[in-house]
Amino acid sequence: MAEVTLGRTMITVNKNGFGALPVQRVSVEEAGRLLKKAFDHGITFFDTARAYSDSEEKLGLAFEGIREKIFIATKTAAKTVEEFRRDLEESLRLLKTDYIDLYQFHNPAVCPKPGDGSGLYEAMLEARENGKIRHIGITNHRLNVAAEAVASGLYETLQFPFSYLASEKELELVEACRKADMGFIAMKALSGGLITNSAAAYAYLAKFDHVLPIWGIQREHELDEFLSYIDNPPVMTEELEAVIEHDRKELLGEFCRGCGYCMPCPAEIEINTCARMSLLIRRSPSAGHLTEASQNMMMKIKDCLHCGQCSSKCPYGLDTPSLLERNLKDYEEILGGKAY
Ligand code: SF4
Ligand code: SF4
């Protein structure tokens, strides 16, 4: 059984964390069943956020009575000390606990530091002194903010997207975390659904012993897949290397990761699906992407106001409006009979 120690937090858990964003989309009963099953089979690290609607509440209900046997990471997107304190109290209440193992700033646009005038980092320290949180972390989608957080020495963990599609710069970030004795929590290890071979994703991350992947889990078959990796962690084989090489070639360059940070769109375009339709249609069963509802969704791209809001918010620096146009053109050609 592979384990990961998250840097100087000394939190040591199985190398399969549970990303609890998707449990928002299932009933309380179903979420409880999935979370308990995960725990019963060896998963002890659960990552949620104040921003994930009722995810914290579902964790709180599922883990009553076994709190000390698991590690809970949650996040606040507070911009003021008042919001920070309110978020923390609300998270503690919903999670039915009096402490949070890892409290993270949720994708801040700038890295909070003591003395920056926001008071946010000081609020973290105060919460740790009061025993309400045990460790301080940060999550981000922007390479520059993440790198600044690592260099600052202020954070015990970094949560950042990381998969075998990582660029050189992203690999440098992972290495910088190791040198700084920080835990690295890998989100989007399946790159928002573009990676369909989870064994290849796992085997790649296995090479990084300070990296903990958190798998977003909504369905039982997804959970079962990752649970099977507890007893039989996939190891890198020539076959899996070939899968990775093929995906890297196909997904090289600029592609939408589906993170949704560019939304909402004033023209109500579902950017995080539409901007990667060409990939989705080729990499997953296509029928679901060709329904009337999907076609209506894609046609909304024609309403784009070219306001530029999306590209200014995209952490990957994508020219989102032109990416949408390219996806629409391809989609219309597919509807017209183009082979894909
Ligand atoms: S540029 Fe188009 S897609 Fe982007 S936010 Fe504006 S209207 Fe929406
Ligand atoms: S365009 Fe950028 S911000 Fe929007 S979903 Fe794609 S990767 Fe995320």
From TrEMBL:
SUPFAM superfamilies: 4Fe-4S ferredoxins, NAD(P)-linked oxidoreductase. CDD domains: AKR_unchar. The keyword Iron-sulfur applies. Residues 295-326 form the 4Fe-4S ferredoxin-type domain. Keywords: Iron, Iron-sulfur, Metal-binding. One of its GO terms (molecular function) is oxidoreductase activity. InterPro entries: 4Fe4S_Fe-S-bd, 4Fe4S_Fe_S_CS, AKR, AKR2_Oxidoreductase, NAD(P)_OxRdtase_dom_sf, NADP_OxRdtase_dom. This is Putative aldo/keto reductase-like oxidoreductase. It comes from Hungatella effluvii.
